[in-house]
Design brief:
Layout: H1 27-37, E1 42-43, H2 46-49, E2 65-67, H3 72-85, E3 89-92, E4 109-112, E5 119-123, E6 128-131, H4 137-145, E7 149-150, H5 163-169, H6 176-179, E8 186-192, E9 198-202, H7 214-218, E10 227-234, E11 236-237, E12 241-249, H8 252-264, E13 271-276, H9 277-287, E14 297-305, H10 307-323, E15 326-331, H11 335-351, E16 358-365, H12 371-385, E17 388-394, E18 399-406, H13 411-430, H14 449-452, H15 455-468
Parallel strand pairs: 2-4, 3-4
Antiparallel strand pairs: 1-2, 5-6, 6-10, 7-11, 8-9, 8-10, 12-14, 12-15, 13-14, 13-17, 16-18, 17-18
Length: 482
């Protein structure tokens, strides 16, 4: 039995997993898969497969098998077999996604990328690195920082998520307000197409405009166009110093307006994180970090640069926050104090289940000057429905994580929640925003994609998918509803 490959996030008791259908992958096909990756690196045992039926927020079906290739060539052979024998393949990293991008559908085979987990080369002269997709994001960040370098993308799950999954979803994180998202740090990739062909895209240089930008097409495609097996990542020099601050507000609207005021004053912190009262109380109950549970909102701010630069920025931010209505502005005095604040921020999402057994999790984005409007809308929906709604996230780039906590067995509450989500999506688009900033579409948001993407553009996307994957082998049912 393949216990060494059962991931740490496998937290559901088997009794709660619903096996929706009997597996139809033939023993002959499975034998071919076993010959490609080796017997210890594959399984059809239900107790192994159960761990791959869900991600961090979405439940799927039981896969037919799970395999763990080690090389690009093995992945090529798996996809060639899948294309010939017409079974679907679901590439999977750590399974920390929020929209079902890596969950099984139909009678699929999970291709786990955990064995492609090597940092191949860090090149400080050219500020680039060559990395395999199974490398843990936080581990990669630690390794480059030891060489005085910096990889800015920092999803909240960085300690467990993988770089390949980050590329598939175009992950962001708190530092996106200053440094951008994953796609801004990918110079090129090696990938395997649905028919088994191996391609290399992009460059190793800071400039390159030869042909279409296939690299950017693959980034954020959620494993529907190809399986990335190697990446060339751009690095930056590590900032000399970092300061972390909190600003506490009695009024949620004042906190939201202060975010806009900071940007309007041409100050770009590396993070501006926002927490409403429900998220503050939840994180405090979970960690006992000393957060002010009577505050309506907290802004968690961070600046980096030279010591002289950041001292000036801290003073400017304090002035803006106090003028905007903050009743307290505190600067973390030690690295441990700063780390405790980030622990509290990153604890919000997992700790929300103290409110209710189920969560509907959305990651809308609006123009930064529209944050006060979206905060008012969420407050109105909370009053209209009577449901527990929690909002927090990367306010510096307009990305708000909106959560409804409920028991989905209560059909009335579930219907109210679904109506509220649709209303929020409509309002978000009306404000010039988007229904997904970093979680992708997967299966959870596929029903809503036409709200944002027009019919001509959507048809073009589907034709691109058909060109890359004519037999719909790779991650079917994701992004577009089949």
């Amino acid at each position: 039995m393949m216990h060494k490959f059962i991931p740490s996030f496998c937290r559901e008791p088997l009794a709660r997993i619903i096996f929706i259908f009997e597996m139809t992958l033939t023993q002959s096909t499975y034998a071919k898969l076993r010959n490609i990756v080796g017997s210890p690196n594959c399984s059809m045992a239900k107790e192994d497969l159960a761990c791959y039926t869900y991600d961090a927020n979405t439940q799927g079906q039981l896969p037919a098998a799970v395999v763990f290739p080690r090389t690009t060539d093995e992945i090529s052979r798996i996809l060639t077999l899948a294309n010939d024998e017409r079974f679907s393949v679901i590439p999977r990293g750590a399974g920390t996604g929020m929209t079902g991008g890596s969950i099984p559908v139909n009678d699929s085979v999970i291709v786990g990328m955990s064995r492609l987990n090597h940092i191949l080369k860090i090149d400080p002269d050219n500020l680039i690195a060559f990395v395999e997709p199974g490398v843990i994001t936080g581990h990669f960040q630690h390794m480059v920082e030891q060489q005085g370098l910096f990889y800015p993308p920092d999803p909240s799950s960085a300690d467990v998520c993988t770089l390949g999954g980050n590329l598939a979803e175009n992950a962001g994180g708190p530092r996106a307000v200053k440094y951008g998202v994953t796609r801004d740090y990918v110079l090129g990739v090696e990938a395997v197409l649905a028919n088994g062909d191996i391609i290399r895209t992009g460059v190793q240089t800071m400039k390159g405009v030869v042909g279409y930008d296939l690299t950017r097409l693959l980034i954020g495609s959620e494993g529907t166009l190809g399986i990335i097996t190697e990446m060339t990542l751009r690095l930056l020099p590590l900032p000399e110093a970092v300061k972390t601050m909190t600003a506490v507000f009695d009024r949620i609207e004042a906190a939201a307006k202060t975010v806009s005021d900071i940007i309007r004053r041409r100050i770009i912190p590396r993070t501006i994180e926002y927490m409403d009262n429900a998220s503050i109380r939840c994180a405090e109950n979970y960690l006992h970090a000393g957060l002010p549970t009577d505050a309506e909102a907290i802004l968690l701010l961070e600046v980096d640069g030279t010591k002289i630069e950041i001292d000036a920025m801290v003073n400017h931010l304090k002035e803006i926050c106090i003028a905007g209505g903050a009743n307290n502005f505190t600067v973390a005095q030690t690295e441990d104090e700063a780390a405790d604040l980030w622990k509290a921020r990153k604890a919000i999402s997992p700790s929300l289940f103290t409110y209710a057994p189920d969560k509907i999790n959305e990651d809308i984005v609006v123009p930064r000057n529209k944050i006060p409007d979206i905060v008012k809308k969420i407050d109105a929906l909370r009053s209209e429905t009577g449901l527990i709604m929690v909002s927090f996230g990367h306010a510096g780039d307009g990305n708000i994580h909106f959560n409804i906590m409920l028991d989905k067995k209560n059909k009335d509450d579930l219907k109210k929640a679904q109506t509220a989500v649709e209303s929020l999506f409509d309002f978000t688009i009306e404000l010039g925003g988007t229904i997904s900033g970093e979680h992708g579409i997967g299966t959870a948001k596929a029903p809503f994609i036409s709200k944002e993407i027009g019919p001509i553009e959507l048809d073009l996307m589907k034709r691109i998918k058909k060109l890359f994957d004519p037999n719909n082998i790779l991650n079917p049912g994701k992004i577009f509803q089949d």
